[in-house]
Every structure is written in C-alpha cells, then in structure tokens.
Amino acid sequence: MSDPTGSPSAPPPGCPAHGSAVQLAGLQYQQTPSQLYRSLRREHGPVAPVLLDGDIPAWLVLGYPEVSYVTSHDELFARDSRRWNQWDAIPPDWPLLPYVGYQPSVLFTEGTEHQRRAGVITQALEGVDQFELARECELIAGQLISSFAGSGEAELMSTYAHALPARGVLWMCGMPQDSTDTEQLVDDLRISLDAGEGDDPVAAYMRVGERIMQLVKEKRERPGSDVTSRMLLDPAGLGDEEIVQDLISVIAAAQQPTANWICNTLRLLLTDERFALNVSGGRVSVGEALNEVLWLDTPTQNFIGRWAVRDTQLGGRLIREGDCLVLGLAAANTDPQIWPESHVGAENSAHLSFSNGEHRCPYPAPLLADVMARTAVETLLERLPDLVLAVEAGELTWRPSVWMRGLTSLPVRFTPTVQ
Q: Domains in the chain: how many in total?
C-alpha cells in the first residue's frame, strides 16, 4: 500500500501499514483480551490499525456503533474477499487463508445471490422442531455423560462441550447418530476447525467435504425431515456443490462457537460465586449465565472480515478501497459507550455475538444454538449436581487464538455415578 506520491516507505496516516499498527497476536489476546481492547480503544479510537500474521495490514473495528455500521452497510463493506488489496502479499501457506480465501459458499456471496443462498438455509433451519432438538440433545448429553460418569472426573472440553453440538447439528442435517462414519465426521470437524498438535486440518476438511457430499447424494435419493433434504427440495434449486459448501458453513458455525459457548458458561457457573452459590438453588438461571458469556466471553472474539468497496470514512479513519476490516465482536460487546461503568446487564440481548445485518447468523440459527447450549449445561448440572473444578480457577488457560474464545481444557470432578 503506497502513499499518494507513490512512495511505499511512507504510508499515509489513514493506512493500516502506518507505524502505529499493532500485531493482532500475542498472549494478551489469548488470556486478557478485554484489557487489550480497552488500551487499543484509548490509543486508536473505535477503529485501530493492526497487523495480521506475516505483518499483513488490516483494520480492527472495536466500537459497537462502528461494527453495527459496517455490518449494516454491505454496499460499503462487502464479504467477497477477492476485493482485498493485499492478495499480492499473501503467501500460499498463509495461516489465515482458510478463513479469507474465496469459496463458493454463502459466506462470500453478496446481493441477490446471498439472499438466495441465505434464504434456503433460513427456510431449512426454520423446519427444525426446537422441542425435538432439545430432546435429541438431552439424549446425546446423557450418552456422553454416561461415558465418564463412573470415573468421578472428566475433561469436559473434549468429551462433552465439543461433541454435543457436533452431534446435534449433524442430527439436524440428517446424519445417522449411531454410524461409525458419523463418529469420524465429528472428529474430522473438530480437527478442521480446532486442530491440535499433530492434526492435519486440511486433510480433515477434505474428508468432511467428501462425507457431506455423500450425505447430499443420499438425501437427494431418499429425502427426509431434515435440513439437508429441505435445502435440496427448496424451489431455489441449489446444486449439490452449493449445498455441500453451505452445509459445511452451517455445521462449522454451529459446532465450534456453540462448543465454546457451552464451556465458557460452565466455567462461569463453576468459578463465579454469583452463580456457583445460586444455581443449585435455582435463584440464578442458566439462561442468565449463557447470555452474560455472550457479552463478556463471546466465543467468536474477532471475525475476518469485510472488504471496503470504495474509499470511505469509519471512526475517523480513512479506509481505502480493498482494505480488510476485522470485526471486533468481543470489543464491541464491551464498548464503554454502551456499558458505562463497565456494567453489563445479562438480561440485555443486544450483543453482536451472532454478528449483525444481512450476513449475521441466519434466523433461527441463534435460537437453535441456544437450545443446544442450554440443554448441554442444564443436563450436565442435573446429572452431576456436585460438579466442581478439578483445578484452581486461575490454572484454567485459554486457547492461543485471537479469533475464538475458548478454554484449552475444563477438568472437573464429581461423585462417581452409574448413569
């Protein structure tokens, strides 16, 4: 990015490559991001110049009004990443390429094409019976809890919080719950979205795509009462590849954020005296804890991204055509402009955790995620009423990610029981 005189060594003050840009990385983002967002807001205002992996310039949108504005004005800030003015600087092995590389899915469509694709997803999700989903999630929760209830201890992140929404969303899509390939798909989803050391996320993602394509072909031959079949039968007439891409988007959006929502809520319930002392007595609802987490520890901390359609102003900054904007959902949720004196009202649901505007999570996806998360937390507390942390609260650590807010593990202990 060069200045008006053509000198690449002297970027203009409005450019993300300016010397004041900060790395969107580091331990502080992982452990105490709220403090970092406050310092960024003090130093740069509601829109801060940042550097992504490899010192790639971008903007981090921190303010609640600014995030709301960006997500409400697709004509200025679009989703098609092919607009990016930095592609020449992006290496083929860039770590964030899976998130920003253009794919023919609903995530990157715009205008009437996005309305068409999102409309199919919305209609398919609206056909999910929320009471039936809750019953299914309770059965899944019971099976998972039974697998560790007799031991008196468990690591809930891997054995419970990740597995339940994965199985829940696959059930919604029409996958059989008792097949070995479903178990493999659940594991591949985890690897592709949250790879650990030694995992191959690219290979896992390829296997996910192959299995979803197989599911689409099965449902085209024998449709049922499920999301996949409803997408296939929709009058919009999406092709198999379009449906595969959009199903993967639906499954990924449901699994990882919901898993972290469950685990972050359990952490709050087990470590905060307001909840720990009252949940068993019923005076503080699980619903309040779930909502407070969306404000203060939202699973999707930052979302990449939007790309400027033309030169424009935002938060006092000059945004150039093709610039990348990272949506700081967590920072916006704790914007002091909307929460004076740092008081967050758990009863308020105007957070941006499901984004905003045309590209927000399609209705009724947030309601379905709430059903899965609420059922997971309530069933666990009901089945294991004396559940406590197996370590000190201060020993819990957050995953090394600036994008997702989730624990590396949540070890607990309880009285062994036969479920």
A: 1
